[in-house]
Amino acid sequence: MAKAIKNNTIKLKFDSARNLAPAPESKSAATIKDRYELFINGEFQKPLSKKYFASINPATEEKLSEVAEANTADVNKAVEAARTAYEKVWKKTSPKERAKYIYRIARMVQERARELAIIETLDGGKPIRESRDFDVPTAANHFFYYAGWADKLEYAFPNRNAQPLGVAGQIIPWNFPLLMAAWKIAPALATGNTVVLKPAEGTPLTALKLAEIIQEADLPPGVVNIITGAGETGAAIVNHPDINKIAFTGSTNVGKIIQKAIAGTNKKATLELGGKAANIIFEDAPIDQAVEGVINGIFFNQGHVCCAGSRLFVQESVAKVVIQKLKDRMESLIVGDPMDKNTDIGAINSKEQLGIINNYLAIGQKEGAEMYQSSCAIPKKGYFCRPTIFTGVAQSSRIAQEEIFGPVLTIQTFRTEDEVIEKANNTPFGLSAGVWTDKGSKIFNMTTKLRAGVVWANTYNKFDPTSPFGGYKESGYGREGGLHGLSAYVDIV
Amino acid sequence: MQKVTAKKITPKFSENGSHNASEKRLEVLKTYKIYVGGQFPRTESGRYYIATNSKADKLANMCLCSRKDFRDAVVSARGAFGGWSARAAFNRGQILYRIAEMLEGRKAQFIEELIKQDATPAQAEAEVNVAIDRLIYYSGWCDKFQQVFSSVNPVASSHFNFSTPEPTGVVAAIAPQNSSLIGLVSIVAPIIAGGNSCIVLASSGKPLCAVTFGEVLNSSDLPGGVVNILTGKVSELLPYFADHMDVNATVYCEKDEASQKLIKEKSALNVKRIVTYDKTDWLSDQGQSPYFIMDFQEIKTTWHPIENIGGAKAGY
Fold this sequence. Notes:
The structure holds two protein chains of two kinds. By secondary structure, chain A is α/β, with parallel strands linked by helices. Chain A has helices at residues 14-18, 72-89, 95-111, 113-124, 128-149, 177-190, 205-216, 231-239, 252-261, 287-299, 316-331, 351-366, 398-401, 417-425, 440-449; strands spanning 35-36, 38-40, 43-45, 52-57, 62-68, 162-164, 167-171, 194-198, 224-226, 245-249, 268-272, 278-281, 311-315, 370-373, 388-391, 408-414, 432-436, 454-457, 476-477, 490-492. Chain A is built from 15 helices and 20 strands. The interface between A and B is large, with 45 and 36 residues.
């Protein structure tokens, strides 16, 4: 019997594909100030802390701007502004007027989309193609979607009356800075709450641009306050006695600290935490589409995605061909300048994160898994990581159990549906999952049995304002997006 | 329809089966055990406590359950979860209805136990009636709440996208401590109606009905392990209800702030969902709602592409 497995793929000539002429987006369409203050009570205010910290472009390691560091006194000021705005203004603003403010914000985000996309890419290192085509439009759409809910809440909770909670403290991560701000702010405002939002310390600039938009939109002062800072600022928000609700997106570890910190209080919380999603390919799947979906599932946004398909399960009979096709496709990915419109994989968000990823690469090899990286060149300056896959991974491997949050895929094989369901669910996480098969009944068997909040069948990493997002188990609780995202911000009486 | 009345049969023999009319029949006392995995074991610890009424009359020796009993019960609940959650919602509805039927049939026994535990006859009957009706109420919701709380989401891309509730998993509940039956039933019914399995700690002070309710469950085609009932001290078991790593949600119904804090803190270990009902009057209609079912549900969103190649439109 012939040993060679027939591979019908026509091998692309990557050399020529890789030599695309540079197509850089221009920085001139965006304005970044040298320094940003805290956005409190409708104004940009100097921090009481008198401290500032730098925001770095991870692709060049150059300083982009410096932003204020909010201390406890600054947080107090922001919460007070939000409380006053809630009691005196926002609570009394009629729902339809609330809606119009949010619509206005949505429109202004659309108007300034190009600028926001450029800043998002400069500040966070993600490819301009993603900022431009995904982050910014989805953020605008999120505002647009929730705006419409403001005066229709009585239809959302049958036989109940939805009441706002009060002041929401919102803490967001660095992987989708503007989009996460939109996910948090839009439903909170639509349901009549006021907001104190803290963007991640590494990627504060688009949230501060959003603050400018909110100011320009004439939203009543104090309804949205955006303050910058690191973990201590976040802790001050979480522990503030006059906050009614904490909405957090970030790591499972910090989520647990927050859940514990608010234990003795009546604060409500929604937590959107880590993930280690299984992406499952059956032998009857459309293999080329599946490979494309796996690539998108793990390399989208450099793998800095909580719902990234970071554990690939391939049915044994097609494993060889799938892995070969994955390697071929990885070779064609362009890694480099995030501002280049041809770039597929941009810069790792920070030096710290690159360190974490590299550490996992070392762990994976030490555990005996076989590592494969694409052969592409990466820029000398800036934080970059080649797309990476591991084969020969054990279920117990740390690289298969822990969230890496980078462009690193582990590959395991399976024989039966039961086996893969068992393996896929055998994790403390439960945020998302993917299934690839041509058989409808198998899809529904899998999507019902996978214990995860979002399941993509024959697709992956799709998001929409109308579609609820959030996890099972240690991936957190509560939903963001859609009808179900409203309940995170209301008391139903 | 002809009304059926049961004929009263006067026994030919005296009640104890002997012909000696002067000898009083000795009552057979019930041993109150716990209900775990569809069986009625004693606590592994061999410990007991004495249930009394307000006059300090001894009612029964109750199992004083240990951490190990709780852990065993979690194993049973986890084992039962997959099968129970995969049952047809309609079938779950039928089983909840069956529980109500069984409770109706044993009404007298529950009334008697409630009276022993300080209820007046009128209160006792009312509580049992509400408990039966509550089970019927949730029986009906089993295959309806999904429709009320689901959505088909009109995403902007070419995908079919829908969100449905799915059970959270294994729920550890401390039943309301001030009632013997209605609190327990009101907590357990929405949990299992939604397809979860549970471990429930009975009222420490009024534990009798919980164990007898276990017998009702056991004769209702409810698979073993879906509901596990323990008796014991809340203060001893509460930390384990909150920190067990294979429990997905915790329920607590008392106003005690220190305990609430402890539960919330320990629940953070594995991001448990924490549900606190400290304001609910379980005897009233306020004690039932589909939102109680939703407290133990996760929303799952499923995506699938829609082929959109040709130009045909559904124009007619």
